[in-house]
Amino acid sequence: MIIPENEREKSEYLSWVIDCCLGSRKDRKDLYDRRRQFFLYGTSADQEVMYNRMESHLDLVSSFLYSPDHAQFSLAAPLNSDDGIVKKFMAAEDHFNRSFGDAGHFNHFGDAMVWSLVFDSMILKMGWSNTHDQSTCTMIEPWKFGVFSEEIT
Q1: Which of 125, 118, 128 is nearest to 139 (CA)?
Q2: Residues 73-121 pLDDT 10s
Q3: Side-chain half-sphere of 103: how many Cα atoms within 13 Å?
């Protein structure tokens, strides 16, 4: 994508890109609302079905794909490192996994896994909270971001 240098042309071009990206937003929101209804209630109507097999099935499938209880990151020291360096890396790995888990991010990823099966995609946005002095994680639903070209999967 080549962005023009001229300010007027750049503004027009970026407006066109934003319009293209948000053009299908309402249609996608309607589709995802129907998918949410089927997932939560087993039907797109207002009344609940007796047995909602969709929710239990997707919960089972997501449990095969990811388990927050056994999730962890690994940090590896460079090859042929001294024992002191290796122990520092192991301590950093333990600290990172503990703080990541204490902030609930492994569980956020598990929740996003289920919803990505419902919506076909889900984005997790990582950030930092100065008030809580810890990292944050926010799920961004697929209708809240733009899609430039719908025909490209």
Answers
A1: 125
A2: 999 999 999 999 999 999 999 999 998 888 889 999 999 999 999 999 9
A3: 19
Cα separation, 94 vs 106, in Å, equals: 14
Q: What's the rounded Cα separation, in Å, for the pair 91 and 97?
A: 10
How far is C-alpha 129 from the chain's CA centre?
18
Identify the CA nearest to 17 among candidates 108, 147, 132.
147
> Using CA atoms, how far apart are residues 148 and 135, in angstroms rounded to an integer?
30
Kindly tell me if the per-residue pLDDT of 153 is higher than 70. no
Question: Which backbone phi and psi does 120 adopt, to 5 degrees?
Answer: 80, -15
**Angle subtended at Cα 127 by Cα 118 and Cα 17, rounded to the nearest 5 degrees:** 65
Buried b (16+ CB within 10 A) or exposed e, 124-133: eeeeeeeeee
Judge whether 89 and 76 are in contact, CB under 8 Å: yes
Which pair of tokens denotes residue 117?
């099966």
Q: What is the pTM of this model?
A: 0.75
How does pLDDT run across 15-35, given as a tens digit for each residue? Answer: 999 998 888 899 989 999 999
